[in-house]
Amino acid sequence: MSITPSKLNYYMMFKVPAAYFCGVRTKSISDVSCIVSVKHRWINQNPFKSMFWAVQGMAAEFTTGALMADKIKNSGKRFSMLIVSNKAVFSKKATGRITFSCNEGLNINEAILKAIRTGEGETVWVKAEGKDEAGDTVSTFHFEWSLKLKS
């Protein structure tokens, strides 16, 4: 069974309710990318009339994690995955609809294949970029994912 945006949103409702109630939704997922969006609303605002940084982080993390989970599922192997580090840059107030995209499917594939080939744990840095409706970048997140093949 393939991973679809509706399945990811259903999963989020029960497993990541804070993101779901803040409005984080998966829009698309493919072999190379995942797109997640969230709209600035009362429930996810900060005192400065923009989207709280942690809500942006949830959306950014979900776009990278969903792509990672899809790649792991397609590998036919069982992995544990965990974020071990992250960095973020905020370049503009996040208002309106913010769309996060991760286009790192090929890098994730390489890390998974290397972990399968060597049997060792791997880490991979994955980027998610958030843009507003005008196409301006509001935030960029980098997550270091750890992958370990389960026995």
Topology (elements, then pairings):
Layout: H1 5-15, H2 17-22, E1 25-29, E2 34-39, H3 53-75, E3 79-90, E4 97-102, H4 105-118, E5 122-131, E6 137-149
Antiparallel strand pairs: 1-2, 2-4, 3-6, 4-5, 5-6
Helix pairs in contact: 3-4
Q: How would you sum up this structure in a few lines?
A:
With 151 residues, the chain is an alpha+beta fold. Helices cover 36% and strands 34% of the residues. The protein is globular, with a radius of gyration of 15 Å.
Structure description:
The chain has four helices and six strands, in the order H-H-E-E-H-E-E-H-E-E. With 151 residues, it is an alpha+beta fold. The chain has one domain (5-149): Hotdog Thioesterase (Thiol Ester Dehydrase, Chain A, Roll), CATH 3.10.129.10. Strand 5 (122-131) and strand 6 form a beta hairpin. Helix 3 (53-75) packs across helix 4 (105-118). The model has no long low-confidence stretch (mean pLDDT 96).
**Rg estimate, integer Å:** 15 Å
CATH superfamily: Hotdog Thioesterase
What is the number of independent domains?
1
Structural class: alpha+beta
The quaternary state of the protein chains shown equals single chain
Q: Shape from CA axes?
A: globular
> What is the tally of beta strands?
6
Ends: how far apart?
23 Å
**Which spans of ≥5 residues are poorly predicted at pLDDT below 50?**
none
Across the major sheet, the strand order is: 1-2-4-5-6-3
CATH topology: Thiol Ester Dehydrase, Chain A
- Biggest sheet features: 6 strands, antiparallel
CATH architecture: Roll
Approximately how much beta-strand content do the residues carry? 25-35%
- Name the helix and strand elements from N-terminus to C-terminus, one letter apiece: HHEEHEEHEE
Number of H/I helices: 4
Mean pLDDT: 96
Instruction: Please give the share of residues in helix.
Output: 25-40%
